[in-house]
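Exercise: predict the fold of this chain.
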Amino acid sequence: MKRSILICDDEKNIRSGLAMAMELEGYQALTAEDGQIAWSLINKESVDLVITDLRMPNLSGEELLKRISSAYPRMPVIILTGHGTIETAVEAMRGGAIDFFTKPVDLDRLSLVVRKAISSSDLYAEHEKLKLEVEQLKARNRYDRIIGKSQKMVALMDTVSQVAPTKASVLITGESGVGKELVADAIHELSTRSKGPFVKVHCAALTASLLESELFGHEKGSFTGAVKEKRGRFELADGGTIFLDEIGEIDATTQVKLLRVLQERQFERVGGEKSISVDVRIVCATNRDLPKEIEKGNFREDLYYRLNVVHLDVPPLRERKDDIPLLMTSFLTQFNEENNRKLEGFSNQAKRALLSYDWPGNIRELRNCIESAVVLSRSDVVEVEDLPIHIGKAQNPSTVALEVGMTLAEAEKQLIISTLAGCAGNKTKAAQVLGIGRKTLHRKLQEYHIDEA
């Protein structure tokens, strides 16, 4: 659908000239000879941007701007002015106009400003749509910290919902940064133990002797530094859930004691003789291949089968790229609030880079990337220059991914986007590479709403 530009000026030649220029750029042009007529059109028609003179009969450009800023705060307004009213135009920009032009108007610069303004409005609308989708997903899911609509994530969360109310031990596997701890959180929160304690232990962060003491506690005087009795994590988790992260890192002695807890629900503190009984559900996570660790003799096979009653594998981000726009939007909203920023979305180049990158660090890496971009951005959107260099270079303009079932129009759009990226945004060069005229390319850019500026 063509974007609609309203041109408001009491000089007929200027109105018709600007209207013709905008129509050549691929827009639909509406005209008004004064502010009152323009205001009436804004309330009746679908208007995407307004270009208005300041000095007009019936309703001035300043008053029209005030009405638009109040009723339609997202509608871009460009001011036209004679040389004698530049100060007034600057004042109008403080009132909400995005730019001003002195007459006679530089049409090339005007076209650029219009394109950028329309593109910015599109980005804002897309960001708001994605925010709404994220909120709707959260409302539908019983656990709202995991965001995803891809087939793999929907299947994973369906299994989590099915498994959570049971007593079964769960082994969560997946690469570093995929969100295994969030899955463990969801299992506890959706379980019948949700009112009980949820105790987390990061096994890789502790030495073998410290880990045993942390898990099972110790008696006073059992070793140097044991100045008083200490309850272990299993005691603290009684009636709830214990989450053992990086379970593949525990030593052989601790594996034996853990196996006994799983079999008998009993253990002794370090240096103690009294058996302590607990009612604890065990959820574990690892990024190691435990069957291979069993072959190497590093992990007990009997313990593995006790832990692996239910196996949940969290997919890496590169296998669920449908979820990246939702995650980007969620993180952008979060870090806008935390850093008192008001970024409205991501430029098309930034989006392409984020979707092209394989994310070896998974969600953790994406989260850090968006936080950095929000802090470093100097405009109202995240640009590709705000991303880490290796992510910004993730696009490969020398190839175009075309899926079977894609329409010719969609394929043409992807080819134009990739060619423009390969030509660093140079439209003349891109048109030459594509074998079409520059006007034809420009018309297609407007038709497909491609932000090439």
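Check your answer against the key: The chain has four domains: 4-105, 151-314, 318-392, 396-453.
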